[in-house]
Amino acid sequence: MLSYILKRLAQGILTVWFIATATFFAMHNVPGDPLTNDRAMTDITRANLEAKYGLDQPITTQYLIFLRNLSRGDFGISFVQENREVNDIIREHFPVSAILGVLAVIFAATGGVLFGALTALYRNRFPDYLIMFLVIMGISVPSFVVAALSQLSLVTFNNLIGFTVLPVAGWGTILHMLVPALVLGLSTMAYLTRLMRSSMLEVTSSDYVRTAKSKGVPATRIFTRHQLRNAILPVVTVLGPAIAAITTGGFVVELVFAIPGLGRYFVEAVQQLDYTVIMGTTVFYGAFLVFMVIIVDVVYGLIDPRVRMET
Amino acid sequence: MSELSASSFAPIEAHQQTQVISRPSLSYWQDAWIRLKANKRALVSLYIVIGLLLFTIAGPLVWQVDPAIQDIEQISQPPGTDRGATIVPDYEPWFSTQGLPGSGLRLAEPANSQTVRMQWDALPGANGHRVYRNLFPVGSELAYGIPLAEFLNNDTLYFEDRLDLQPGRFYYSVVALDARGQITDQYQSLTVDLERVTTLQEALERGLIDTADNIQIGDEIELAWHPLGTDYLGRDLLARLMAGARVSLFIGIGAPFLFVLFGVVYGSAAGFMGGRADQLMMRFADFVVALPFLLFMILFKIAFGIGPGESGVFPMLVAMVVLLWPATARLVRGQILQIREQGYISASQLLGANTSYLIMRHMIPNTLGVVLVTVTFAIPSAIFTEAFLSFIGMGVAPPTPSWGSMSNEGIKTMLTTPHELFFPALFISFTVLAFNLLGDGLRDALDARMRNVE
Amino acid sequence: MSADGNKLNADAPLLEVENLHVEFDTYGGTVEAVRGVDFTVEQGQTLAIVGESGCGKSVTVQSIMGLIPMPPGRITAGSARLRGHEVLGRNRIDGKEIRGREIGMIFQDPMTSLNPTMSIGAQIAEPLQVHRGYSATDAFAEAVHLLEMSKIPEAAKRARQYPFEFSGGMLQRAMIAMAISCKPSILIADEPTTALDVTIQAQILDLMQDLQKETGMAIILITHDLGVVARMADEVAVMYAGRVVEHGSADDVFYRSAHPYTVGLKEAMPTNDPALQHELKPIEGSPPDLFAPPRGCGYCARCPHAMQVCDVQPPSDHFLHDHHFSRCWLHHEQAPIKPETIYFKDAKA
């Protein structure tokens, strides 16, 4: 198991290097000079920056400087907000996005497993039809519409009862987080519900469930001991990509609900062409996702004995 | 036991016709088509998809309205509003304080969508006045709306509003200012219902009437018809939805076709070559998968750069192809490897089939189903991606319409004119829904595992 | 049903199946998979149900066990009585589950028939916990003992392992241990050796016979392998196209075969008995499509002795003696060919 984790970590670092390289060359291709962006900049600042990033050097040197800084965990200093380190910006805004994302993933995973199992149990009966209808809606309606509608209904609801139960926008308390996290997790929940349903149906018609029936095991015990654990496995395998979808999908929710997360900051940085912030955020997000996928895979190994033994 | 004739026990001569296979023999695609037809949801979705394509391609031929033209008389009009407009004389400037008798805030002349002229008496204790306009009554929170004008003396007691007037109800307020120019709680309100008017000259210019003959001041004419209403710039929503459909569906269908095609080529090449080349190619695919998708879509957009007058559709297409091919490549490679191990491939090789025959006869037909399903499911996610990026302002550049950018514009006026968000969002949802259900149907119809299940 | 509802009726046959009909709804229409099957199993006996793929033998036993998915499956008629108690469609006698307690079952493919995420020991222990109220630890200890009985070496270590760590033969032993954990009176074995290597097959069959001797249970053995039948069976039921076409003791069916299909099966089987050696002869054609079952005898189309009547009217049971019967028109008094001349030509006796 340990050697497996080490191997995955090594692969992960290689992947992060690839992401960093792709980011560097994509940003290098951006038209214009990062330092002449209609921004008042003293000659000294300019010279300092040029020296720091080797902007007067050939691209390979710049790339090496970039990699060297990166390996030290130094993403540089914002071009727009002078004297502000990208690391500071990430440290300030990422926890907000992370809390939102974690809540959303919890919503999506528990909801998906629960509703998926329910639909499979009540296959072709009313609860199945109702949930699958909602799932289809959740998959088909764009997240920004869901966000806008939920905000609208919050406004109406708060007006109706005369005081604010759940705030419409902003950040701070757990009450601020609930609705945005739900909205953020909704489409993933719908996707996981579908996956769980088909996985559950497959398990239900499997030979080993038939064996359990032939042993006279009661239906509830078959459900908890045999069906659930096996049916969850495919859901766990897609949790890595689901976390990726949720964290990057946070942009919209952060914009609509005015949440000071890293996603919203990234969009602002792109609009202002803040080179170091864009590069730093991209590499950081990429690394975060790579390691989330590794964690999910390791957790999968703990659940599935076949993987556990092989590794 | 009942009696049987002796002839019953004569032997049957030949076994003709005694063995009939009652199930018809079907090819893979015939069978799939029958299954798809039996799936009502998939069939309805197929019709919706065909309808959408007609809407996009043939729609502009039927509804020949330029999506860029602004109808300033009908801004943010929901569908089904009264289109009548009364002809009034051309606008003439107003200087007079003379008006209707009366007290308090009052109209100096009947108001219409051309101009609102009002006058008032100085409020008690006022050193000046500020005029506000709102779409809602002032209420207990003293929400006056947007300030229109400010007069720091008690001489000017009249005001003319021509700002962005629309037919409908407006609430005007005039608030007393104290000596320092701060507002006090002294105010008066006026509710005004505006009637839509236009002038002869404008009606002629816009082609609403052919000639000015026979048309008098005070006559009513009909303004241009907008079946789905107009947006915040007075552009026809139906025409914009059609133009937007072209962008959204071009990206939504074009990008999946391209990246699936690339994925198929890459994946089958890797699968065929096998060994070291295969491993290297798939490792590269793993790298590309690890790139955070939406961030790189945005990164590519700024890296390509959008010049003035460009829509940004092409960079988005390229970015999607660059980022999304690995999933298909993995899938196809897996299929190829699986098929290569099948007995019928060895059998075919033993019978002397060469590689190109194997590819044409076995590999392609056996992967086509999976690829088709992949494309169908890739379309809704590509449409979503376009909408998502355009929504956060990182997609197609204005004024090019796309359903996503239209939603982005519509969401700002969601509270007052919800139709501007509703229609593009509805089109996105319906398209995504249709392609998803069609994909489900195709997958079920093409899934070979299900074919012989009892 | 007996008036004394709390006890199994010891005088009634152990298991009696009568006129069982099972249908399946499919895309193409309704398949009549089982079309009136009768048989009886007595304590300590081994009944072999023989027939080619799709003849309805698995469906028969799965209906008794309540394992037919409904829908699309449907039991349209018949009864199955365990010691006089109807079990068809209810799997219970006096509120007590019979599956795993009275009847144990093992399946064709041990690789997929065990839960991949549960240890072997826990799976064997499960019936004991469910039916006997054992604690998890006691049940696990008993599971280890059962694995030992099934001749699995290092049982204590093996019990903690997972199915993917076992070979096919080992898994089938574990399946048997699981099926007999509550000492059932009947063990149903649905093609237990089909998926295994030939060398393992004999071991599994030996194990089943040993356990039968120890516990006195009856075995219903589903197979298409006449070699397995010859080795194991006391009674044989030959099934064709959803019906039992011949039933009798193993000796009767093998040496006094009374149905052309049984004869055909035997001629298609290799043997090392010099008295029976012959040239292998396949049965031409294929079984009828049960979407539209034939009016007459199901075997008519492939039968070398088919007569006009075979095509239009189903034959009824013709008892040759005591409980050896055959469903074939050749046994009718008007039939031109005497069955003895063709059927019993292999007879040793």
Automatic annotation (TrEMBL), chain A:
It is found in: Cell membrane. The keyword Transmembrane applies. One of its GO terms (biological process) is transmembrane transport. The chain crosses the membrane at residues 12-30, 98-122, 129-149, 169-192, 231-257, 277-303. Its main location: membrane. InterPro entries: BPD_transp_1_N (IPR045621), MetI-like (IPR000515), MetI-like_sf (IPR035906). It comes from the Bacteria. Belongs to the binding-protein-dependent transport system permease family. This is ABC transporter permease. It comes from OM182 bacterium. The lineage of its organism: Bacteria, Pseudomonadati, Pseudomonadota, Gammaproteobacteria, OMG group.
